[in-house]
Amino acid sequence: MLTNQSYFKLLIAALACLVISSVSAKEKEQKIPFIEFKQAKIQDAVGLLADIADINVAATLEASQRTVTFRMKKTSPKGIIDTMARVSGLWYRYMRTTDSYLLMTAEQYQSDIVVFRDDLVRTFELRHQNVEAAAKTIRNLYGERVILTLEYKNDDFIGLPFEEVEDAIVSNVSSSSSNNSSSNNSSNNQSSNGRNNNINSNQNNNQQYGQNSNQQNTSRGENGTVAGEQLATLGSFVQKSRPQNLLTSGQLNSLQGQQSIQDQQVAKVTDAQTPIYITTNRIHNLLFVRSTDEGALKEIAEIIKVSDKATPQVLFEMEIIEVTVGDSFDQEFDISFNSAGQIDNFNIQSTADDAATTSPFDITTDNFGVNLSESVSANYALPLAAILRGENVHAFASNAAGGIYRFINDQVNAKVALLKKNGQARTLSKPVILASNNRQAKIFIGDEQIIATGIGTNTSDTILDNNGNAIITGGSTQVETERRKIGTTLYLMPSINADRTITIDILQDKSKVVRNGTQLPYFDQDAQEIRHQAIDSVNQANIKTVVIAKDGLTIALGGMVSSSTSLETSKVPLLGDIPFLGELFTQVQEVNKSFQYIMLITPHIIMTPEEAADKSRKISGFNYHKNADHSDEEPYPDYGFDRYIDLTKFAINAMNNKQTKQTITNKNIISVNDIKGSASAIFPIHGISARAKAVWQQDNLFVSAFKLRNHTPVAQTVTNSTLHGNWLSATIMQEELRPFAEEGDTTWLYLVSDKPFQQIIEQIKP
Asked: Are 213 and 233 in contact (CB under 8 A)?
């Protein structure tokens, strides 16, 4: 008796036998005993095979015209199709969806393979570097692999009437597709098989770089899912990477007959490189990179990391001076630097008779004596040495008779002394320019003028008289004009070196129009004679040089000399203004003038924003609008820099007991008895005390002498730029203060003001 379990076992065994016998029978049925073709066309061969084997076989139009010759025995239909394709140079594909075989040419086979990619998108946010410059750097490194698309520049400056503005206009490039992708994530676009998808992408036309990309996405064929974006068919993909070259049989075989492959697989087979797509966002300074090459993405990330750094800058303080030299002009333009051994009337002499070769930093009271025009103690050796080092220009300024001094700021180490009897010198400009490293900066001060540059002759004209007869007339002569910028132009291009020196390319140009300065001859056809036409000329003086400057030190450029001739009128007052008779008391003479141009440049290196703030504080004295109205402070009065110097020198000599009663009387200086009160509030550093020792008054000016002491256990530095309060002048004899109780922990401070020091200290905000 069979149990249920035994019954099921017998049933399963019987079914297995039926399946095995069915498969064996099917295999036997698929074996074709004999088949032979002699110069048969492929279309006839596949038709016969389909009838004999009862299978679906087709050939494309191009493949059907091929001929084939072979003989086979006991072979399956697939083996016959494979042999037929090999001997005729064709390829075939079995499509499961239609249970059919398709023979095609190699070109059609490659076009039938869909190439897709699984892209990676990286987003880089640049903090300092220009995003378009970074994109072009990557393009230069990776060459044709990079497909760069720059966004349209909505530049508000384009269209303005500036001839020198360089407009980099980039054509707007239409995007072929829009993918929502996030940084560091893969973009996956899935496409189902079993149907035909024809996707024609828009043509990307980048006129700037000459890159044209036509992509046709086609997905055809078999079961399965294609992950990622369909890039192109294999044929078009290979033609872009290897123009006019098809894959070899071995390369196609290495693809294992797949219907859908990745572009990385094709790249490995063809030794081609996958493309890198780059675009930018200028508003937010973003760089977007898309590629399947992870190695290239890592390299690009490293390139951006290295290059995205703050751009060093150079702040230029300048003064361009024009010195006019006339017939009755006697002058001397002297540019002397503080590195000289002679400072005003103070002559420092080395005990070793080697003052010319001794560094200012080696000057001490031990190895230098002081020979002064006025009897001053030898303790002035150190402050004078500080002047030589450029640490305190205002402490001792030039006191030559008749001197006019221009101090660019507290840090400038150049002294401009203009001594004259009669004449004039004027400052053309005092520009302050901030230039990026290795980038050109330009400043133009002047105007645009219309000048006559030549003459032009029109061709002869034909006119009709009253009777209708033609009359040929001679050509007319016209003056040709053009618009030209006239004035002072300055170009600077700094290059910061590793040792904080600056290599500066300098081009300075000064132009001036001379009206009717040249007579241009021409032949007048009507008068049949040579005539002259007055045209304008332009006098130019320029300097083109390359200099190496130190950070914070001044360089001087000179030697540009130009001359001009003008008419000057002199007349007797009142009598010269009488109509008609006034000409008898008026004299007009031709005066020749020469102009000499001097330019002083002080560069300041700025590496970081913090350093920029520090430089700004140091050059805060470089202010051309010191008398401008401010909402929260009083305007600074200007009593003359020479008075500040005289009062400071008087106070220094008085504290050293070198002033006599006769000197005090001659200078109209009185001593102020009220010297109570501390001045420590003028220093931002706690632990520095300032006690008033003496105060003098000359008319509406006060000069106060304070003794400073460092009460801290560490050395402190006090400078004029760190003082609080509205002082007209400040002189510190020694900026470095030693720790408390050590020699050198005290120094003297001299302040010039237009009110008692107590009132100024009261106004200092806590």
From this structure: no
